[in-house]
Amino acid sequence: MNLLIADDSAEVLDFLQDFLVKAGHAVFCARDGEEALNFFQKEEIEGIFCALTLPKLGGLELLKEVKSANSRRPLVMLCPTSDSENALNAVQLGACDYLIKAIDPLELRRTLDRVESLHEGFHFSAYALDHLLQETRTLEIGNDFEGVNRIIAFMTQDLPSYGILKQEQLFRMNMLLKEAIENAIFHGNLELSSEMRRDNPKLFYKTAAQKRDIDPYKNRKLILQYDISRNSAKYVVRDEGKGFAHADLLDPADPHNLLRIEGRGLIMIMNFMDEVFWNDRGNEVTMVRYRKRKT
Predict the structure, then answer these.
(1) Going from the N-terminus, what domains does the chain have, and what CATH number goes with each?
(2) What sections of the chain are H helices per DSSP?
(3) Strand order in the sheet with 26-30
(4) Which residues pair with 236 in a beta bridge?
(5) Over the stretch 228-273, which tens digit does the pLDDT of each residue have?
(6) Is 143 exposed, middle or buried (0-12, 13-18, 19+ CB in 10 A)?
């Protein structure tokens, strides 16, 4: 991928450039927002890592410029620990993820995986659905985590046609459904810990591939249900694991909780969806997004 880094710290630029180049990507570096915007407009930029605070043009302003160009390119906001409120603003404006300085290499690797996944895309064949009023489907899938993107593309392909989301918001919905489904596979059906995923990603995915082929995990399924109308989109994800204590979840409205690594994906889901709730057992989550009316 062609990646753009925008940060006025030489130390951060050098660290990110070294990491991303070693991961096999081409990198453009900018020390202020105007230079970054110039790169974005003139080069084939496929992903952006942008500091929240930049000379000449701030990170949030750059994010707005990217989105106003109807770009689906994933943008990661680089945030200081002292500004969690603007980290939340960045997510609400369409950033696909954020990183807290000083940047943890393990968190950077996971965020880069997300950026690469978004770049690969959620492909589908578009067709006219103006005459449809509602659609409801139920899918049963196994623990094939490599195929999650294709499943999500199928589940969300019609949202813009119903007017639930703008086209430029679709990749964010895809990303958050990916988070929910992967949580159900990895932490629900396969009973893997989030600590292993953070501390040793290679071992995590290797263990997941092994466990899905042995008892009792290999027989566990995911039920995915969705109901889309011109008023709302409801997605239900149910696994066959033991469930979790959802009552202990952090307050998604508190910007300081964005600084926490554990549970970040659920916080992002709860900030984007209009309703999120679990069954008593904690193995089924329901997420609802309503159509936004023009005022």
Answers:
(1) 2-120 (3.40.50.2300), 134-290 (3.30.565.10)
(2) 10-22, 33-42, 59-68, 84-93, 105-120, 148-156, 159-162, 170-183, 194-199, 201-211, 264-272
(3) 26-30, 2-6, 47-51, 75-79, 97-100
(4) 225, 286
(5) 998 999 999 999 998 876 665 555 555 554 444 455 677 788 888 9
(6) buried
